[in-house]
């Protein structure tokens, strides 16, 4: 069994997509007749589709609408697939960790063509050992399942492993999975919220983490 793994969220962490997702969800909700503030939508980014809709519309919503709203978001977001852009340092960070002997695993709510587009944007497939997608688990973040599944894919233990994400949902999932949660601010969530959710270290973005790698959780392992 590997001693540790480097697990990464993708949206808002490695690829600059959170605000695109927020706009697409806002528009899909608007088309379905729901008025939800952009701030509320942005705060829900990082949840899987079903959990996001429950977070925004509540348990008493008309669940028959869920599929159509999710499909609307997927169609709107799909128009951006070819223009997705990684954050500075994201590609080099994954390659550096891979070279240092860390199994790198992506843990994301994306799947299918969306996941393909994200991996194409990152352009570091040679450094990525495995991907734990939304199709692989029954319960998404903030449940620990996606992170635990990511560890299982490379035979890693939670102790000594690190999960890098940008949302409170990521931090809660990492904490519950028993790994060390590390946050980046690139998803638009403030430092205080991330630390309250469990972040042990906070960096501006992947470029900042790469520059600080030797003194980070990765450098101390």
CATH superfamily descriptor of the largest domain: HAD superfamily/HAD-like
Strand pairing plus helix content: what structural class? alpha/beta
Following the backbone from N to C, one meets helices and strands in this order, namely EHHHHHEHEHEHEHEH
How many E-type strands? Answer: 6
- Beta-strand content: 5-15%
Strand order of the largest sheet: 3-2-1-4-5-6
The overall number of domains is 2
Overall, the morphology is globular
What is the CA-based Rg, rounded?
A: 17 Å
| Terminal Cα span | 16 Å
What's the level 1 CATH class of the largest domain?
Answer: Alpha Beta
Low-confidence stretches: none
Number of helices: 10
The level of helicity is 40-55%
CATH topology call of the largest domain: Rossmann fold
Sketch the major β-sheet: 6 strands, parallel
Query: Mean pLDDT, nearest integer?
Result: 96
CATH architecture of the largest domain: 3-Layer(aba) Sandwich
Q: Could you please describe the fold and organization of this structure?
A:
This protein has 221 residues and is α/β, with parallel strands linked by helices. It folds into two domains: 6-17 and 85-215, HAD superfamily/HAD-like (Rossmann fold, 3-Layer(aba) Sandwich); 18-79, DNA polymerase, domain 1, CATH 1.10.150. 43% of the residues lie in helices and 10% in strands. The chain is built from ten helices and six strands. It has helices at 18-31, 38-44, 49-57, 66-78, 90-99, 112-122, 145-153, 168-177, 191-197, 206-211, and strands spanning 6-8, 104-107, 130-132, 162-165, 180-184, 201-203. It has a six-stranded parallel beta sheet with strand order 3-2-1-4-5-6.
